[in-house]
């Protein structure tokens, strides 16, 4: 059985209540459950934190574990601000796919630049919850 790790950053724990016109009405738990339902032969682990340091620790912890096919990462606003997160991704061996529910290129200008994209295997954005599914499938 394949295994992937989905990591979600700040404020994603508020999905379903936070700006539903941008992020939809599904909760984070519902999104993870839908990904698991679509990938029944994959062990989908999930971690969410609002803390940059905890996200970095989890990437480092999984990043050299060959039992994972890779990491799906929605870094939230840290996408645009965290050089430390980018450094953690660059330091590990596992491939990381950047994910966003909304199309960050169609949003505020500050969201157009991703500091993590250059060190990720790829990026998927703008497909709602299916961005997670597409990223996971790309790693399998």
Helix/strand order:
EHHEHEHEEH
Low-pLDDT parts are none
Strand content: 15-25%
Task: Name the CATH superfamily classification.
Answer: Dehydroquinase, class II
SS element count, helices: 5
CATH class: Alpha Beta
Q: How are strands sequenced across the largest beta sheet?
A: 2-1-3-4-5
If you average the pLDDT, what whole number results?
Answer: 94
CATH topology type: Rossmann fold
CATH architecture label name: 3-Layer(aba) Sandwich
Distance between the termini: 10 Å
Number of strands: 5
What does this structure look like?
With 140 residues, the protein is of the alpha/beta class. The protein has a single domain, classed as Dehydroquinase, class II (Rossmann fold). 32% of the residues lie in helices and 20% in strands. It is built from 5 helices and 5 strands; from the N terminus they run βααβαβαββα. It has helices spanning 20-23, 28-38, 52-62, 83-91, 130-139; strands at 2-8, 42-48, 70-74, 96-100, 122-125. It has a 5-stranded parallel sheet with strand order 2-1-3-4-5, sandwiched between helices. Helix 2 (28-38) packs across helix 5 and helix 3 runs parallel beside helix 4. The mean pLDDT is 94.
């Amino acid at each position: 059985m394949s295994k992937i790790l989905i990591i979600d950053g700040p404020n994603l724990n508020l999905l379903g209540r936070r700006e539903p016109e941008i992020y939809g009405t599904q909760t984070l738990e519902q999104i993870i459950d839908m990904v698991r339902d679509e990938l029944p032969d994959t062990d989908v682990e999930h971690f969410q934190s609002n803390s940059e340091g905890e996200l970095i620790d989890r990437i480092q912890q999984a990043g050299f574990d060959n039992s994972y096919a890779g990491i799906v990462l929605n870094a939230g606003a840290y996408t645009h601000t965290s050089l430390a997160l980018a450094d953690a991704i660059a330091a590990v061996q596992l491939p990381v796919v950047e994910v966003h529910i909304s199309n960050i290129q169609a949003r505020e200008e500050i969201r157009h630049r991703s500091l993590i994209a250059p060190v990720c295997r790829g990026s998927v954005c703008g497909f709602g919850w299916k961005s997670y599914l597409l990223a996971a499938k790309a790693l399998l």
